[in-house]
Amino acid sequence: MTASVLRETIIIGSVVVYILLTSVLAYVLRSRTTAQFMVGSKTLPAVVIAVLLMSEFIGAKSTVGTAQEAFEKGMAAGWSVLAAAIGFLLLGLFFAKQIYNSNQHTISGLIEQRFGNGARIVVSLIMIYALLLVNVGNYLSGAAALTSALHINLTASAIVIAAFSAIYYVFGGLKSIAYVTVLHSIIKLAGIAILVAVAAKLTGGLDPIREGLPASYFTIDGAVGAPTISAWVLGTVGAIFSTQYIVQAIASNRDAKAARASVLMSAALCLPLGFALAFIGVAARYLYPAQDSLYALPVFIDKMAPPLAALVTVSLVASVLVSVSTVALATTALVMRDFYVPWRKPEPDHELRATRYVALAIGLLPLICVFFTPHILALSFFTRALRLSIAIIALIGVFLPFVGSPRAAVIALVASGVATTAWYLLENPFGIDNIFIAALVPALVLAADHLIPGRRAARALAAGAPDQ
User: Model's pTM, two decimal places?
Assistant: First the structure.
């Protein structure tokens, strides 16, 4: 057996064994009721939820995508992950308890409490649309990692990921995924640490990289630019405040105090990852400037001894599996809560069985679009822009309840979804990021509804009070 064959055998064998073992674990811990499937029966420890939150937002898409952006634009790409630490900090301080005390496990349910059923349906549709695109990025980033490590084509890699992640979200549910994610996260963090160490060894440290790359690679905004970084922070904070799987995870805590603690712990876990992933991408640019930026992170796997290469490959697979699973589970929760259950009104046993079928379909659907999206981070922040518009509506509903009406909320959500998508497809005209469009449109619509005299009078009449 040649050295290369032995190497691939070790890596492939490690990946297969890991997937099989964690699949068995997910099945053993599987959810047996709809409550366990959706919110873990509200029995999960805060530290488990914290790890789940961190892994949901810093998954394969963020790890591979941040390294790709750093390869192209410098260390400032780390802001794409540091923004998550900021978002979780703000969520923990100002909103986590409100989410938990609402007794809702879907973002559409939270919106419905303030703006009614019409807004709930629109929010659910926008979030489903956004989360399906999130999994497109997850499949693409995971396929890129497997293609580089296992030397199989992109199509085969994506199908492998889809097939095995299905076990997690079809059978496991949130109860199982949360516990298996702790193992995934330990492996993922170990893999990132190894990648940083190997990159540092091959480059000789940071000084040679500074000398070999443009100075902009080491400034606070790099070639990314302050407007884009501001958009990243705004979009990430908004997405964290509104994303379905964040709401679902927070609802799984034992009480409101634990909900806040879990979110604050996840902020601390995110903080060092931004610097680590940016360094990996910059090191790849210094060493291999002519390669495709998509492989900025996976390229280092080929430079490792087989045992380390196997561990890092497994860490990437772990990251992909948890990312795909939590997003598919969150999308399933929206479809079941907002569409299937109101329509069919199933018995508990039938509801759990139907949930598994819906989860399978939702998990596989994004495969159709995987090969039409070359830049992972751009897609990632577009999906965050879509979710930001929901966050704007939710925050106005909580903190400015006198602003806007149910009809205005529906118009705002539809207008924002259409405008943000169009802006993204037009590649951000005038240098204005689509995230700013997502933030501005709903705020303007609700403000106009509040300020137009006729609308104020109609609301006052409906409330049985004189117009102020």
Answer: 0.75
